[in-house]
Amino acid sequence: MSTLPNCPQCKSEFTYEDNGMYICPECAHEWSTTAPAESAEAARVIKDANGNVLQDGDSVTVIKDLKVKGSSLVVKVGTKVKNIRLVDGDHDIDCKIDGIGAMSLKSEFVRKA
């Protein structure tokens, strides 16, 4: 069993050590062997499609028609979403959209309002 830590970016277990650095072969992320892994996650910054930093409670606008998985509903371009909550994961915004309900969005499909 390997005692090396999982990649803090993609959570891959196939990391290896080289010249005092941990390296992930799946996402090419490199980090120091002396730095704690939690500091990389704590410093994670979520940005919108324009590069603006998002925070909990912000309002955002959808920039692309998004199909709602499992139904025939569509979130239209220009839909304003208020009071977002940032979470970890692929879909990093949790929100409630009028007429649709609670859902998760990717930050790359929104811009700060």
UniProtKB/TrEMBL annotation:
Transmembrane segments: none
Ranges for domain Protein YjdM C-terminal: 46-113
Residue ranges of domain Protein YjdM N-terminal in the record: 3-32
Superkingdom classification of source: Bacteria
One Pfam family this sequence matches: Zn_Ribbon_YjdM
NCBIfam families: phnA
Family indicated by similarity: Belongs to the YjdM family.
Annotated protein name in UniProt: Protein YjdM
Species classification: Bacteria, Pseudomonadati, Pseudomonadota, Betaproteobacteria, Rhodocyclales
